[in-house]
Amino acid sequence: MERFRGYIAGLGTQSGTRLVIGHWPDSPFGPFTDVMVENRFGSRLLLAPDENTARYVSSTYSFDAVDVVPVTAWLDEGRLTVDGGPLRLRAELGQVTFLGRLLEAVPAPLAVHPLWLRAVNPLAGLIVRGVQTAGTTGDRLEFYGVRSIRRIAAAECSWNGQDLGALAPVSPPVRFGFSSVPSRPQILAVTTTITARQAARSESSGQWRTVFTRMPNPSGLTRGHPESNRALKL
What we know:
This protein is mainly β. It has four helices and 14 strands.
């Protein structure tokens, strides 16, 4: 069993590009941040800070391309900042949502337990359309234990220096795995549990193709060092 404790931020932009940022202070790979991007044409890209996380994430979720680039992030009480390859994001955080308050009242050991998350999964999609708390990705079982939710109130986002437009809903839903993020821009404090079922991992050379950036595959990169003061409850 592998467990990732951190934050998932989901937001859309007026350009049609939608982002899902995973910010993980505590993971089997150490602290890291990755970014899943789907553009308005439906092409899906992963930005990952090193080969190990790129292989793991891309064997768990579905992408059309993967770029290994330095990805760094900073999360505090009021802002999420992400710099990764062509991406620059500055997101202002709002208040904890009503659902977030309810989730904070669930005892932590129960809130992240796979049996609980499997039991409440049928309700999750009724409460928040497109969201699931348990499902299969490839040949892995995955469970999302959300501990709190805050709104994303505003965001400035650019790609290769081009403004992606104002903050917008995540619409249509992203298609990286069995569950989308909520349509309203939000950041979730979450514990993700992945069972010990072993996925087949690619033995390719690591020369990732890209349909987004036309960037050459980097070599000799220094891994990013994401920081977090644990602004939300884990």
